[in-house]
Structure formats: C-alpha cells, structure tokens
Task: inverse folding
C-alpha cells in the first residue's frame, strides 16, 4: 500500500497511515493524443440525453477548477509517479465528454439498459400523511420521489458504473476491480462488466456481506469474483483498501472503478458528471409537472454521489435548497455514526482533501450506520465545499429514524426504500412542517430496500402491507 506524507497548509498533518491513496484509474494509458477542445469539466459538456434540456448557470459553487479543487478541498494527493497517469485519465475523460460517439453509446445504454429516464413520482399518500400531521388547511408541501430505485440493479450506482466500464474498455483494460459497502455499487459494476465483456472482481467486507445477503447471492450468479475481506472490521473501508492493493498490483490490465465522488482529481468530478443525469432529468420533469423548479432537494449523504447526482444541476439556482442527510447512527454522542460533516475535521484521505471522521491523533474513525452504504469516513470534496460556502444544508438522521421512515414509505406507498435512502426520507419529519403550502420537495430515492430485508427482519420488523 502506497502512502505519502503531505503537509497541508494550516491543517494538522494526519499520520502517514491515513494518507492512503486511490491511484490513477488508468490501465494501459492511451498514447493516442486527441485534439481536445478543453471544454474541461463544464456542465455544457456533460453526458446527457438529447431529450434532457439543461440550464447551466455559471456559479461560484459550480464544477471545481481545472485542478479539481473546490476551494481548499479536493486536489490530487498522490505520489509523483501517479500524477501523469491521472493526467492521462483526465484528458481521456474530458475528450469523452464531448465525443459524440461515446455520448451516443452512453445515452442509448442509459435508456435501454438502465431504464432511464426514471420517473419523478408524486408520493400522494406520503404528502397526505404530513398534511394530516401538520393539520394544514391547504394542500401542504408536495413530496416527489426521483425513482432511482427503479434503475437496473436497483440503485443510481449503475449510471456511473456503466459509463466507467465503457471508459475501461476504451483504455484497453481486461478487468475491473471495485469495492462495495451496501453492495449496490458492486452489483452495478458486475452487471456493467458482464454487458461490456470485462472481467470483474468486487471486494466486500465480510461483515457487510452478512448484512447484505441478497446482494452477495446476486454476485454468485454473475461472472464476477467476490473477495470477502475479513481483515480488521470487514467493512467498506477495508474492502476499499484491499481493492486498491489488488489494482496497484495489476496496473497493466486492471481498471479501478470508483463508485462515489471521492479520490484524487479527476475521480470525484468524473463520478459526479456521470450521476448528474439524475438532476438534469429532474429539472425537465419538474418543468413538465409544475412549470418551474423544485423548492427543496433532499438526498442521503454517505460520500456524496447520491446528493451531487441530484444537486449539481441546481447548484446555480440559488432559490433551490440543497439538503443532505448524514447518518447519525446510534446518536452523535455515541461515537457510532457516519456524520462526517456534523463532527468531522478537514484532512487528507484516499488522495484528496475533505472533511473526515478522525480522532484527536488524526486517525480515521470507524463509521457506523444501519445503511451500510453510508459507512464511509469521509465525504467528497465538492460536498465539503457546499458545506463551507453555505450553499448546501446538512442534517442527520439516526438508525432508528431511518428504519421508521423506511417502514412509513413501505406502508403508505408500497415502496421499500434502501436504508441509505431512508435517511433522506427520515428528515421529512423535520423539514415538511417548516415549509409553505404547495412547496415542492424532491427526495432522491436512490435505491430499493430488498437488500436490507434481512437486517430489518433480524430487528423484528415486518412489512404487513407489502
Ligand atoms: C441505495 C444507496 N443510496 C445511497 C448510497 C450512498 O452513496 P453515496 O455516498 O455515493 O451517495 C448507497 C451506497 O452504497 C446506496 O447503495
């Protein structure tokens, strides 16, 4: 495992063991030099369906600079030897953003394979539930769900996995390696690799596999090797380290497919761009449904691909509130949570600077959430920037609140949301009573909860109405 010591101006230096890196995602680096018209990372050049109009506003909060910095966050904290590889990946990515053939292939796959666009569903009974609680005379705020749970493989993770698998193929890699916590990114990666005919190895912590039984069975059905990571805590953090180790040992043939908006530049921006199709569709659907913007966007917050996928399109619309909900686990005082923004500090981890859960010595603290996919000890740099600039609002929901929200949606709408998603839904209890009549609230329904049924049953919870 490579590590490096980096002095960050004005920040305590975390111990070397925490300077773990996710290295370049490039395998055999393309030596072909395309003419790149440096539309670098602008939203205009994002992959999107032709049918999805985007309204990009230049904003101080948008996009990050060419070095992948969002204010003081982000960057590329990797050894010198990897810088050129990351640069090559960045060039390839920028080229593909405006490459017509790639965009067409991606758009077709998102439509015919993933099932996009996903519906923007008016949750009528949930809306009615909150209206009755508030005893409003008018209609109360309206709640809509962006149904990423209806995507192929059951979550938004497939948007990014598919696009990156296509990049892996273009770069001449024969194998993809990934790490997964809740399993959704692993399943999506396995599916994308099957479709594109790439070998796939997914690392998953042994503890997580026990919790996400349904997904590990799915892996066994596909042509994917699953590696159970038994070391240390057997969670996502350990799976990530093992996957990186595997990748570094097989750089020539293997592509490391990152599932969220962390890591060194250009990884966070690349994942965000591939997920931002969610927000672009949402804008168009909102326009069709009520002829304007939503008032509040709500998403659960692990490391941030769910949140940025929905938020990014609206970052420049400052009248749209962007609300992220972190996992408070057993409570913020318990020490067992994943509430990085609520109690974390700035440091460097996995190749970029961001808020992290760390102790007084700068050591990474083990995160906890009943939503296993939220158990990451950091957030993406763009999320940290949204917090620091005040553009994003960030709150927390406990395990218990998330479970209750999961049951409520199941009972009222017949939709079992993932326990990760349920954190966003839990926050509606606090949010809805504060909103005006008729306000439009959109929740990113990031995944379905089939994978969590064992966890819920073990807690004695049943779903009589589903
Ligand atoms: C359904 C679902 N929603 C949300 C997340 C959190 O992902 P992120 O931290 O990238 O937003 C996960 C992670 O596995 C997930 O499976």
Result:
């Amino acid at each position: 495992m490579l590590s490096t010591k980096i002095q960050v101006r004005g920040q305590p230096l975390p111990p070397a063991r925490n300077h773990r890196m996710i290295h370049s995602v490039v395998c055999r680096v393309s030596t072909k030099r395309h003419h790149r018209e440096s539309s670098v990372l602008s939203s205009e050049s994002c992959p999107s369906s032709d049918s999805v109009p985007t309204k990009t506003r230049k904003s101080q909060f948008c996009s990050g600079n060419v070095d992948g910095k969002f204010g003081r966050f982000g960057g590329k904290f990797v050894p010198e030897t990897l810088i050129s590889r990351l640069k090559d990946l960045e060039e390839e990515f920028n080229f593909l953003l405006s490459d017509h053939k790639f965009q067409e292939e991606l758009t077709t796959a998102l439509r015919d394979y993933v099932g996009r666009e996903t519906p923007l569903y008016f949750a009528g009974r949930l809306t009615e539930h909150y209206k009755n609680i508030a005893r409003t005379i008018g209609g109360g705020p309206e709640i809509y769900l962006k149904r990423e749970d209806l995507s192929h493989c059951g979550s938004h993770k497939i948007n990014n996995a598919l696009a990156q698998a296509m990049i892996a193929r273009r770069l001449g890699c024969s194998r993809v390696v990934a790490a997964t916590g809740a399993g959704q990114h692993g399943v999506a990666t396995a599916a994308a690799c099957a479709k594109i005919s790439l070998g796939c190895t997914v690392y998953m912590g042994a503890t997580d596999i026990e919790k996400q039984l349904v997904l590990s069975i799915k892996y066994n059905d596909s042509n994917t090797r699953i590696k159970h990571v038994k070391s240390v805590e057997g969670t996502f953090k350990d799976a990530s380290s093992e996957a990186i180790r595997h990748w570094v040992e097989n750089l020539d043939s293997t592509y490391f497919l990152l599932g969220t908006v962390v890591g060194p530049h250009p990884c966070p921006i690349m994942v965000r761009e591939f997920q931002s199709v969610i927000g672009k569709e949402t804008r168009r659907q909102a326009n069709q449904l009520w002829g304007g913007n939503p008032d509040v966007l709500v998403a659960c917050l692990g490391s941030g691909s769910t949140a940025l996928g929905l938020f990014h399109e609206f970052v420049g619309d400052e009248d749209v509130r962007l609300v992220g909900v972190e996992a408070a686990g057993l409570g913020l005082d318990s020490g067992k949570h994943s509430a990085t923004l609520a109690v974390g500090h700035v440091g460097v981890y996995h190749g970029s600077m961001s808020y992290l859960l760390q102790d007084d010595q700068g050591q990474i603290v083990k995160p906890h959430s009943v939503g296993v996919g939220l158990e990451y000890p950091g957030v993406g740099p763009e999320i940290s920037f949204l917090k620091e600039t005040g553009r994003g609002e960030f709150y927390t929901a406990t395990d218990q609140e998330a479970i209750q929200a999961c049951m409520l949606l199941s009972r009222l709408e017949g939709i079992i949301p993932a326990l990760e998603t349920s954190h966003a839904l839990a926050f509606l209890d606090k949010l809805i009573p504060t909103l005006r009549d008729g306000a439009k609230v959109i929740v990113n329904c990031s995944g379905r909860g089939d994978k969590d049924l064992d966890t819920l049953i073990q807690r004695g919870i049943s779903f009589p109405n589903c």
Observations:
- The two ends are 47 Å apart (CA to CA).
- Confidence is low (pLDDT under 50) at residues 1-58.
- Residues 115-153+276-458 form a domain with the Rossmann fold fold (CATH 3.40.50.1100).
